[in-house]
Write a structure and sequence with these properties.
Number of strands: 5
Number of helices: 1
Oligomer: single chain
Distance between the termini: 29 Å
Length: about 110
Amino acid sequence: PNGLAGFDRLRALQYLNISGAPCGSIDDVGKFPSLRRLTLAGVDLKDVSPLTQAQAIQELQLDSNPIEDFTPLLDCPHLQVVYVDMEQLPVAQAQLADAMFSLEVQP
């Protein structure tokens, strides 16, 4: 199931928090051209590549997800900060060493 399908009429949406609700997929994230901040903590997210469609995204909270590949985030031109948890930190740091955004640990 696509966890963002029910929000597709909210094109001016700037902030979305779907933490704790397993979303399955975020393939429709590109339908929100104004989305600046997205909180996806604990949603069982594995693939962050659809986030490259969210061209206005500035802040992402991705902690408590089984993400193995953070490198697609390098293609998000306006991204300023990504929040991860301590378990994700070593992988995220290694993969995002050349990032222009900051990587923060969510307590």
